[in-house]
Amino acid sequence: MYGMLGLLAGLAVLAAAAVFLRYRHFFDDPAARHVRSVAGDVGATRVLAVFAHPDDEQLIGGLLTSAKAGGAYLAMVTATKGEAGTQSPVVCRQSELGIIRKAEALKNGFALGIDDQEVWDYPDGGVPDVPLEELVDRVEASIRTYRPDLVVAFWPASGATGHKDHMRMGLVAEKAIERMRAGGEGPRFVAYPLIPARSLLRLGRRTGKFVAENQPLPTHSTPTDIAAKRRGWRIHAAQANYVAKAYKMPTWLLYLIWNKEFYAVRNLESGQWKD
């Protein structure tokens, strides 16, 4: 009897291990070169992240904390307060969600070690309706203020998740950087956060397929800061259950499986992808 129970327990462990390894395969990409720090690899001492919504920075927690550990200065711009988001769980009146999510973004930024941070007031879900030049001018002004040598922004054609606000802010960052580089100024590198293509194709349905087909190959991977990401979802209380619902597994388990961040890094001086 006990022998049979032991055998069944052993088989259950093996089955769980097989499932774990299979899912980890989805969240890896052999095309990427693994580095301890993206900022360190490119020699960046000043980093600016340009995003659309509170909690977008959760995609790059490992990049930010490793850059900070290496002594880099960090800044972040978030274009909206996230007031149109779906609460998961509900933590406030919907009319006050923008106030809450702005506070969450600022609090998480502080926890990640961000030195200077802006949360703008553009409409959540309506960033593509804002005049492009207005947004480009503001991002260019932020680049001039914070003087990054590395900008982290969404790839314009896919926005990491297919969200129109993400794609628009990615385009805005590209235009601002292009304008400055044409004048001999601006950052030396830009890094685009990516979600592993195999996970998108396996788990992301139609949107995942769109993103996978419209994003570049990763050049770099870096360790996920699991503690920072789990803490970040606690801080982003209005979205705390988002990951568990989206991936149908507990947050702690997801980040054991998805234990790397992926980036396509472009050298703006040579115009080439950084390998």
Task: Summarize the model shown.
This protein is α/β, with parallel strands linked by helices. Helix content is 47%, strand content 17%.
What does this structure look like?
The chain has eleven helices and nine strands. The chain is 47% helix and 17% strand. The protein has helices at residues 2-26, 38-42, 61-69, 97-112, 132-146, 164-182, 197-203, 205-214, 226-235, 242-247, 251-257, and strands spanning 33-34, 46-51, 73-80, 116-122, 150-153, 189-194, 220-223, 260-267, 272-273. Residues 11-16 have low confidence and may be disordered. The protein is an alpha/beta fold. Strands 1, 2, 3, 4, 5, 6, 7, 8 and 9 form a nine-stranded mixed beta sheet that branches. The chain is globular, with a radius of gyration of 19 Å.
